[in-house]
Predict the 3D structure of the following.
Amino acid sequence: MWIQTLSGKRVNLGSPNPSQIIIGDIAHGLSNVCRFSGQIQRFYSVAQHSVHVADLARGAGLSPAGQLYALLHDASEAYLGDVPSPVKALCDSYMDIERRVMLAVEHKFGIANLDVSAVKMVHHFDKVALATEFRDLISGGGEKHHTTWDSLKDVETDPKAIRADFPAAAQFGFMEKYHSIMGMLDAGVHGSWATKSEERPAL
């Protein structure tokens, strides 16, 4: 059970190997996947969403490793697509495959041992980004539209408005953010909630 990526790699979805994971494939895949199954006012990619979450993580002072985790928190969707959460909840087999792919991604990029506090912060920023998308991209949205979802009713939106990019620009922005974070890791920059090891992964 495998898929072939843009780079020519064959990713075994049943047993993905970190060696099969390439950052360029992730950036390309995520930039071509639309949030909300495409049911929004204009195209907005998972790549842009990921960069938004990484920006929120940086603003909160998370370490470069924490920011990298934020950027890659939806990396499995580059290989599996963006399946709506209500559907995921009904598909145990999909959830298992998603976990396997994410584990391969985390080992590839050295973020498998991220501090639990940082992981929780990234999950919070994921919700902030989601709430902001509800406000700016969903038909009939508005400042408090996201509060109709129980999981988001206590989440504040990002004051900064979303500007949706075309896939090519979103891919460029994702890669630019990735290289910026890797540059901080190379320079030994630290922040809150570091991993046990912040060594740069082999690509």
The domain at 7-112+164-186 is CATH 1.10.3210.10 (Hypothetical protein af1432). The helical segments are 23-31, 46-59, 64-71, 77-80, 85-88, 92-108, 116-137, 167-186. The first helix runs from residue 23 to 31.
